[in-house]
Amino acid sequence: MIKGDGIGPEVVNAAITVLKGIEKKYNHHFTYTDILMGGCAIDAYGVPLRDEDVAFAKTTDAILLGSIGGNTNTSPWYKLPSDKRPEAGLLKIRKELGLFANLRPAVLYPELRYACPLKESISEKGFDMVIVRELTGGLYFGERDTKVINGEKVAHDNLVYTETEIRRIVKRAFEIALKRRKKVTSVDKANVLDSSRLWRSIVNEEAANYPEVEVEHMLVDNAAMQLVKDPAQFDVILTENMFGDILSDEASQVTGSIGMLSSASLRDDAFGMYEPSGGSAPDIAGKNIANPIATILSAAMMLRYSFDLDEEAVAIENAVKKVIEEGYRTFDIYKEGDKKVSTSEMGELIVSRL
Ligand SMILES: NC(=O)c1ccc[n+]([C@@H]2O[C@H](COP(=O)([O-])OP(=O)(O)OC[C@H]3O[C@@H](n4cnc5c(N)ncnc54)[C@H](O)[C@@H]3O)[C@@H](O)[C@H]2O)c1
Ligand SMILES: CC(C)[C@H](C(=O)O)[C@@H](O)C(=O)O
Ligand SMILES: [Mg+2]
């Protein structure tokens, strides 16, 4: 368990409540160990993630993560050099554990259509997509520095992708599409970037191995527009690290709230790290009001992908649907007439409906 900062501990505790319910109902026993990462680790140890904690994480079956970081304008953590800040811990664990495939499903629950900010003629069609985001390459992991050249500061961030890095995520997206509606939209910026042109050529090569899957290429600026114009057109969105970061926040908002968007970071074996797509939400931290559903659904993904406990995962997903159908809402998806509940109450309601 990496509870992290801000709302992280609140939403992870709600997910643990649900996992404990699963243990009881299905007679399992999970062993939980806490690791500090992010701002809390900086405060405790002076670094956002200790090497010994990475080594320990490597001995576990899965990680459930809350979120890390603070207010990037005001928190003293952001006065530190970039490799000592909270986010460096997250990037380090993703890289060291080889978690290259980040799955971010975005589904509009029929009962939450009112929370979708799009006009009714668009939201009434509903949508159910998964963003498959490359997570250990690209701009996030290229060399970067800031130097003084000709008397002025110059900053650069390198965007690097190898064929191997692209091919493994492309294959993963096709495999996922085979189990869904068999459509992959590969998002790139091939009209400008070399890395995108390489990306596109590998998507086309791999497409030949998946003749049942329909493939389309879309430029990222158009994809940002299509996500609000007609989200129902998407099944699997395959994209590189930075574009996936941005588009997944956009997709989450059209589902009503980022507090609903779960995420799994996977590699080729069963190990995975599971976390809500949103951040530590410093603006609402400590108030027990954050929506824990993204974290609870991430725990369901953990049961499915790392523990091969599909029935238990479905039980959590159905319990979430039930509380939504019954009108229980945290503040972010609340409308008049609903039953407003806190973070911990939402966890308890879900566990009681397992
Ligand atoms: N995986 C992670 O750990 C992760 C992801 C994104 C951002 N961050 C970090 O979080 C910090 C804050 O970033 P930010 O403000 O840009 O993004 P954020 O996702 O934390 O918050 C954006 C908005 O969404 C709301 N929100 C987020 N999660 C919510 C939830 N569960 N329920 C209800 N509302 C929710 C927040 O209140 C805020 O208004 C930064 O330090 C950033 O680096 C961490
Ligand atoms: C906190 C940050 C480094 C992270 C990212 O950009 O990957 C977050 O925004 C996410 O989406 O998981
Ligand atoms: Mg993000």
From TrEMBL:
The record marks 140, 189 as: Important for catalysis. NAD(+) binds at residues 279-291. Keywords: Amino-acid biosynthesis, Branched-chain amino acid biosynthesis, Cytoplasm, Leucine biosynthesis, Magnesium, Manganese, Metal-binding, NAD, Oxidoreductase. It catalyses: (2R,3S)-3-isopropylmalate + NAD(+) = 4-methyl-2-oxopentanoate + CO2 + NADH. Pfam families: Iso_dh (PF00180). Its EC number is 1.1.1.85. Residues 1-350 form the Isopropylmalate dehydrogenase-like domain. Its cofactor is Mg(2+); Mn(2+). It is found in: Cytoplasm. Catalyzes the oxidation of 3-carboxy-2-hydroxy-4-methylpentanoate (3-isopropylmalate) to 3-carboxy-4-methyl-2-oxopentanoate. The product decarboxylates to 4-methyl-2 oxopentanoate. Belongs to the isocitrate and isopropylmalate dehydrogenases family. LeuB type 1 subfamily. This is 3-isopropylmalate dehydrogenase. The gene is leuB.
